[in-house]
Amino acid sequence: MKAYERLLRYVKVYTTSDPSSTTVPTTKRQFDLAHMLVEELQSMGLKDARVDDKCYVYATLPATTGLEEKPKIGFIAHMDTAPDFNGENVNPQIIRNYDGSDVPLGTSGLVLHSHDFHHLPTLKGRTLITTDGTSLLGADDKAGIAEILTAVETIMEEKIPHGTICIGFTPDEEVGAGADYFDIKGFGADYAYTLDGEVEGEIVYENFNASAADFEIKGVNIHPGSAKDIMVNAALVATEIVGMLPSNETPAHTENYEGFYHLCDMKGDVESAKLEFIVRDHSTESFHHREEVLRDIARRMNDKYGEGTVNLTIKEQYLNMDEKIKPHMHLIDNAKKVMKELGVTPSVSPIRGGTDGARLSYMGLPCPNLGTAGHGYHGPYEHITAEGMDICVNIVVGIVKEYAK
Questions:
Q1: What is d(CA 219, CA 223) in angstroms, rounded to the nearest whole number?
Q2: Residues 6+ apart with CB under 8 A from 18
Q3: d(CA 344, CA 236)
Q4: What are the residue numbers of the active site?
Q5: Which one, 33, 241, 370, 396, has least CB within 10 Å?
Q6: Residue 164: helix, strand or coil by DSSP?
Q7: What percent of the chain shows pLDDT beyond 70?
Q8: What are phi and psi of 209, to 5 degrees?
């Protein structure tokens, strides 16, 4: 089965995670795909395929006889889709022999424009898969799942010699919890790759340091006619806090290694208000400086309006995996070698985000990230090509071959 055919099956399963949920996984619907994948893995002959009570799927392809001592290599992808946009009732458009022009997305009125996605003309002649404009596609990261399973199927059918291959599919990556309960010991790999990137040939081993920062603001509400020197308007305090941050250090004004403060949500009235930020920076020093800037703002607000007016909570989410990958650069070197042999130009760049691999690397499993051939993730403009997915399958197969030498 082709990887894109698997993708078209998987995207029909509604697996969006929920950042407000306190359950594990955050949505029970993720089990629907997990059980489907376990059944598929078992039908392929991976007898130990299983899903645990927290919705993590694991399976192992034992090493070819004589290659048991070769490094055990893992491949990981996530099952949930982003809560940023509708992930239910996904109806993909399949455009064979795509001509490189703009693509209307169903009857939604949305158009996939080449002036927004400059790479579109380079996909001419391929089989393009898009949304119908009413949902995201779910290639992030069901494409990664499809490519891993297709690579394993290829290795088994073609009897390609290999060391132990470990397979893992996680829930809740999109809400930052994908690695929370990952069983590294049970997974069994010495090293792993997540397939959760974008263009084919992408290799990522540098990512943001990341934290979430929430300001909770308590106001003093009193009749405005007698409010002088008494009222503290929580909503206005919130806007004052936002105004104290550098306006040019937001996602819309930064790129490459530049960090930012991102205001994700704000709500409130006179009595209470809340600001929800995420903080990102590649430099550990700059990252911690940003966190200290927020703490200083909270102190200054409490000095100005009274102790207890502002409460700041900072929760670190993941760290830059760079320092955990550099001692194991064979992971990057082998991926580059395979790509070049396949005629694919490796694209090594810092990711302005994070993956399960970042946290897994700090948990003791060095785990860089590879592209899956997708574009425009987390919204109605998400798209991918069948041929790009085939390339990603071949990259996985090539990496397995390399470690079997």
A1: 13
A2: 26, 27, 83, 175
A3: 53
A4: 80, 173
A5: 241
A6: coil
A7: 100
A8: -75, 140
